[in-house]
Amino acid sequence: MSYEIHDFRKDVIERSYNTPVLVDFWAEWCAPCRILGPTLEALAAQAGGEWGLAKVNTEVHRELAAEYGIQSIPNVKLFVDGEVRDEFVGVMPEETIRKWLKNALPSKFRQQIAEARSLLSQDRLEDAKAVLQDVLEQDNGNEDARVLLATALLFSDYSDAAERVKDISPASDFAQAADAITTIAELFELRRHIETLPESDVKEDFVEGLNLLYRREFDGALTKFITVLSVRRSYHDNAAKKACVAIFNFLGQDHEISQKHRRDFSSTLYA
Q1: Active site residue 244
Q2: pLDDT category of residue 1 using cuts at 50, 70 and 90
Q3: Of the listed 21, 22, 23, 33, which one is catalytic?
Q4: Helical (H) or strand (E) element with 138
Q5: Which residues form the Thioredoxin domain (predicted)?
């Protein structure tokens, strides 16, 4: 089977919107390329359509080599949705390439996860849960789906939400979101036991911040927690700081509410 491209836009760019495409930039004179090529072809044959292989002879397609900054070959790039998602240069053993592919390839459930993310943004929590539970029935280790399901559960069953993310590795791409969910769940548990909070002139503001957060009134919650920070920064083991960081990470740093409060948070914290 020939994997050589005929039309890069069609064979790689357009195709990658449906199936990830691994592109092997090579040349006839390159001895390492001749070692790597058969390994990639064997892996492609075993992939069962999960991803496809395309080969680009850099001597024939010099303009593509220049466009993608090929300075050394073999150079292997993974295209997803028209863009380079990951790459490596040089020869690697087959098992190493398998591990690289496992980490680099998008989940085959990415369309369902994108749908769930859209449903969450529309506050259609039950619909999002149904989609995510379907994904997890087929791939229980899918951390993206686990974090999104925990997000959907957080304000109705925070204990279950925390349980869903408790074993996500600190090295995971989803660790920050998982930490935010865990912290917010801990704050909700604290809200049930406010009698354990130390007496202070900021206790009332802190409790109100917890109540606002529980009602998903993030703007007001951040205002209250920053007020606590400005008066008693270390109150209850820096709980207000932890709450602010968790909300920022839960919403995302680019969210308008995060952007609105980030400067006040920083200036108060480092005053």
Answers
A1: no
A2: low
A3: 33
A4: helix 125-138
A5: 1-106
